[in-house]
Design a protein that fits this description.
Number of domains: 2
Low-confidence stretches: 1-10, 16-21, 33-63
Mean pLDDT: 75
CATH architecture of the largest domain: Alpha Horseshoe
Shape: globular
CATH topology of the largest domain: Serine Threonine Protein Phosphatase 5, Tetratricopeptide repeat
Strand content: under 5%
Radius of gyration: 20 Å
Helix content: 55-70%
Number of helices: 10
Structural class: mainly alpha
Distance between the termini: 60 Å
Length: 215
C-alpha cells in the first residue's frame, strides 16, 4: 500500500505542476525526472516493502536552505529574470533541504532560458548543498554557465569563491572575491559583507602560514 500511496502522490504532484502551474509541455520531462529522483530517494531510505521496517522520526527543516536562497537573492543580477514557476518550485524544495529535487526542477528554468544567470546560480548552489558543500564538476559547470550568462552578476563569483575556500582552495577563492570586490559598485549593498569575509579569510590564511609544519 505504501508504494500505491507514493505513486499516487507523485502523479498528483505531476498533474499540479503540469496543468495547474501550466509549465511548458517541452519541460515535462524535467519534472518527471525530479519526481522519479524523489521516489528513488524514498525507496532507498524508507524500505516500504519490508514489513515492520522502522519509521524514522521527521527531520527538522534545515535553516541553511532558506539562508542560501536569501543570500542568493541579495546578490541578484543587475538585470534579473522575471520569477518563473521553475524557480518558485525549486526554491520551495531547497528551503526544505531537498536539494537534489530542487536541482532537478531548476533544470527546467535553464532549459527554458539558457541565459538565465540566476537559474544557473541556483542550480550550482543546490548541487553544492546536495554534495554537503563539495564542489562537484556539475556544480562548477553550473557556476561557469552563470558567469557566462551574466558576467556582471556578483552571485556566481561570490558563491564559487565561498565554495572553493570552504574546500581548502583558499587562494582560488580569495582571488575570485578580490576581483569581485575590485569591480563592485561603491554603493553595492553586499560590498561591505564581502570585504568583511575577505578580511576573515586573509586572517585565516595568515594564521595557516604562521603555523609550524607538522612532523
Amino acid at each position: 500500500m505504501s508504494w500505491v500511496l507514493v505513486l499516487g502522490l507523485a502523479l498528483i504532484a505531476f498533474a499540479m505542476i503540469a496543468f495547474v502551474f501550466k509549465v511548458p509541455r517541452g519541460s515535462w520531462e524535467a519534472v518527471g525526472a525530479a519526481l522519479v529522483l524523489g521516489i528513488a530517494g524514498f525507496a532507498l531510505q524508507a524500505s516500504p516493502g519490508q514489513p515492520g521496517a522502522p519509521t524514522q522520526p521527521p527531520q527538522p527543516v534545515k535553516a541553511s536552505g532558506a539562508a542560501l536562497i536569501e543570500a542568493r537573492k541579495r546578490l541578484a543580477s543587475q538585470d534579473p529574470q522575471a520569477p518563473d514557476r521553475w524557480m518558485v518550485i525549486a526554491d520551495a524544495l531547497a528551503r526544505n533541504g531537498q536539494y537534489a529535487d530542487a536541482a532537478g526542477v531548476v533544470l527546467g528554468a535553464v532549459e527554458a532560458n539558457p541565459r538565465n544567470a540566476d537559474a544557473w546560480l541556483a542550480l550550482g548552489n543546490d548541487l553544492v548543498a546536495h554534495a554537503d558543500g563539495s564542489l562537484t564538476p556539475a556544480a562548477r559547470f553550473a557556476y561557469a554557465r552563470a558567469i557566462e550568462a551574466d558576467p556582471a552578476h556578483p552571485g556566481p563569483p561570490f558563491f564559487l569563491g565561498l565554495t572553493l575556500a570552504t574546500n581548502g582552495r583558499l587562494a582560488e577563492g580569495r582571488a575570485l572575491w578580490a576581483d569581485l570586490s575590485a569591480r563592485a559598485p561603491r554603493d553595492a549593498p553586499w560590498r561591505r559583507d564581502l570585504e568583511l569575509r575577505m578580511e576573515r579569510l586573509d586572517a585565516f590564511i595568515a594564521d595557516q602560514r604562521e603555523r609550524p609544519a607538522g612532523p
